[in-house]
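Shipment paperwork, digital attachment
Item: protein structure file
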Amino acid sequence: MMNHNAGLYEQDVNAWAEGQVFLLKQGLTHALDVEHLIAELEDMGKSNLRELESRFIILIAHLLEWQFQLETLTARWKEFEAKSWRNTIIEQRAQLLFLLKKVPSLKSSLQAAMTDAYTEARRLASRETNVAADTFPADCPYSVEQILDEDFFPQVAGTPINL
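Attachment content:
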């Protein structure tokens, strides 16, 4: 027997969610669309993990670009200051830290998410800089702690960058 709420789920998931909240608040648990409610709750956790990985991809790509391309670009263009890379690094860190504050249980997934994101981050850095992917290390050269450290910027050609 299909719950009448299940049909609403297929038509308008937001209206369905509001209906489920109403039923819960009224204590009408027997009327809940349990099957779709479980699916949505599972997907909510996956969505948070996807956001974590997505932010790692962008952040790590820019850290790689900073470390492996900054010297080349500043030598080529004296006016190149890498402000956009720096701003992206700052922004992605802020977003990651905010996400971890809102969803602290993601902390247990940080290492795995970083490792999973690295291949795509390496590919992104390669595409954005037009440099061969094998220019970048095969494994992530940064620890989770470094990636999340608001003061960490990788060294370029063995010397720290003055921000």
